[in-house]
Amino acid sequence: MKKIALVLKGYPRLSETFIAQEIRALELRGFDITLVSLRHPTDTSTHPIHQQIEADVLYLPEYLHVEPLRVLKAFWKLGTQFSLVKVFKQFFRDLKRDTSRGRVRRFGQSIVLAAEMPEGIEQMYAHFLHTPASVTRYAALINDLPWSCSAHAKDIWTSEQWDLAEKLAELQWLSTCTAANHQYLQSLAKDPSKVHLVYHGLDFTRFQHVDRLSRASVNGSAADNPVKIISVGRAVPKKGYDDLLNALAKLPKDLHWQLTHIGGGAILEGLQQQAEDLGIEQQIEWLGAQPQLTVLKAYRDSDLFVLASKIVADGDRDGMPNVLMEAQSQSVCCLATDISGIPELIDSGENGVLVQSNNVDQLACALEGLLRDGEKRERLGLEGQKQLHRRFDVKIGIDQLEKLFDNLD
Comparing 211-220, 248-257, 339-348, which segment has the lowest mean pLDDT? Predict the structure, then answer.
């Protein structure tokens, strides 16, 4: 049984079901996992899968000044057991290039992690190549454990290239979830073979398909039977909800629709105000963050899933949004933008529809076409579900990860 310390930014998180899914799948393959969380949970509820995960959780000091004695005790313990010269050299080298308080916090957290490492841990594995990987890297320099990482979206595209390249040089292997990520990270690695394309996939035992009554006749012509649109995602700029609202406001007034949004986020109030300013607030229901069973029911009650993802100023972007796969698992037609890994999931016109990001007019046109054509929505939704099962079963990705871990023996 392999004993792994899996380092996360926060646990549990409603928005990171793909990580929880992976943790549980690895446990079922016989891995003995200790979760290491850099932050305490902030969500008020959890998903059912979190209740099934057996791993213990080690919470590191979220802010060093809150637990100064714990940090000092860790320094003292390590100073008697390990040489800290290597990690201090790396930290000061990094600090010259990144003088943020976050850099200091990561170093302090790594000291606590190395000092409190559970007995018998053979490998460390970080989810996200920015903060969690930094903490993992520093800890590895102290206790000389091999480490690996899974990289996704923001952690790649908002990080400095020097930081990414140095981590890629030191880690044993890295998995990432889109071809664009894969190509970019390979270009930064001295050894490109370390970088592996591993799709998250979906656990179809948790997202079982339930046959729905046909709504092919629903075309937005009746005010008492609107087309039901759903979007699930955090209210953050890269999700493109401002573009979606602007596109919805452009639709003909005789076209009847209702949008349900699920997700919390920093700009939620701003989006609600935007909807009011556009005069479409009565057609939108904002549900906030919701547990998985509620989200699953919402998919099944909907006719069309929309996600208008885009690349924002700091380079942040989606990778392969799991919510698109979740919607497809329920044979919901998906309309999305053509960035990052989304075209690897959706072949426009075959199993969904893609439009250019930041193109409100094109998004509005695609929306109108799908809202008026229920038969097309159902055809694309059913084909999306079929292709999802063929190509994005979570078992495929877990098989790949298991081999990567085994190669460290």
Answer: 211-220
